[in-house]
Design goal:
With 299 residues, the protein is α+β, with helices and mostly antiparallel strands. The protein contains ten helices and eleven strands. The chain has two domains: 120 residues, N-terminal domain of MutM-like DNA repair proteins; 143 residues, Helicase, Ruva Protein, domain 3 (Orthogonal Bundle). It binds a DNA duplex (13 and 13 nucleotides) through α6 and α10.
Length: 299
Amino acid sequence: MPEGHTIHRLATALTARFGSREVRASSPQGRFAEQAAIVDGARVRQVRAHGKHLFVEYAGRGAPVVHVHLGLGGRVVVGQAPAPEPRGAIRLRLETDSAYADVRAPTVCELIDPRREAALIAKLGPDLLARAPDPAAVRRRVSRSRVAIGALLLDQRLFAGIGNAYRSELLYRCGVSPWTPGADLGADGFDELWEEARRLLADGRRTGRVSTVDRADLPRGQRRAARRALAPEDEASGSAVARARARETYVYKRAGLPCRRCGAEVQTGSLGGRDVYWCPTCQPGASEPASAASDGAVG
DNA sequence: GATTTATGGTAAT
DNA sequence: TTACCCTAAATCT
């Protein structure tokens, strides 16, 4: 479910409901019970996102922070009070008289102090959904790297917030093969990717969906729906069906289908440990190495 | 009922 | 590079 756009959307929704309020905290599942008790009833200041990380910040100097990372399968359901009887494993439930939020299946849910929050953020690259993320340091590192840009884009130390769906879509929209070494992009190529990433993620934050296809490239019948924000009930359900319905992509998850622009068969391969998708015609240049995979970390 | 999958990340090898 | 982590829902048998 979660790339940066989802987490930022959540931060906004949670701040609106819990910011500046005293919030009950509990762990119906039990695994976060001790920590929840510590912040139970405390006043939340705000909920902040950096890339794919979520921070529930409490009021008061040195007050603890709840750090959540949803990982692959995690999700947060936000709703109006009264919260329903807990069903399944709810790691953390936040609750006021008017709203509740359930955190399920997070990779990380921990109580930390503000210092630790700052340290975590310091390890991440600029958040593409920040007001004015500075690309200078990232540009420099990419320009010196022989690692494929498709792998670099997933490195959160460089690009905080980009995930697997956006990386493929981003590269398609910029006409860049995922296998292009970072150094071969050139400054202009890098800047184009950077700005396009910001645009796409901002769009996702606005609509709640990964819809990256230009109107003209969609069949007539789909044009209207693709630009509309995701229906609240679909977003709340978070089901795979709702997610698939909320997705209009050029190449992501379209292996073997014809490219929406040129008709060539969309390709898939493994890069950076995840499935990557591309159109061999619209994204010319470096191609998949014949010998299995040449992944890598930052070079 | 069992297995697979997911828009992620880390630790071990 | 692989294994593994958490969990829910989809897909299998």
